[in-house]
Amino acid sequence: MDRLAAMETFIRVVETGSFSAAARHLSIGQPAVSKSIAQLEERLGVRLLMRSTRRLTPTEAGRNFYERARRAMEPADDANLAARGAGADLAGRLRVSAAVTFASLHVVSRLPQWKASSAYRIPAGNEPYEVAPPAAISAAA
Fold first, then answer.
1. Looking at domain 3-86, which CATH architecture does it have?
2. Model pLDDT for residues 61-116, shown as the tens digit of each residue
3. Buried b (16+ CB within 10 A) or exposed e, 79-96
């Protein structure tokens, strides 16, 4: 199993306190979580979790591994977020066609907040939106 995936699985098991909850969080089966932890313990040559019928507790080695694994996963998580965010920015002109009353009550009042959001890049020198009645927008299209 991939080392990062095994570390993430271990982190989720410790944080959720059970194999089943970790499996739900990771969208995999509980047997896959159990197998991943067993392989990780075998590869490291140390027991990371004390299992009982009621609880799952990290051993001393497990607590040390958890802290280091959690710190090691942060840059990987940041890289994933950066990669997803790079293509997720919105850009261009937004054209909304709505009844005047609806637009006045619900759309126009939210435009400044939307414009200020970081999810939208405004093209240089362009106003990102225009407000016009539906007939004017249809005629312009």
1. Orthogonal Bundle (1.10)
2. 999 999 999 999 888 888 887 777 665 555 666 677 788 888 888 888 887 777 77
3. eeeeeeeeeeeeeeeeee
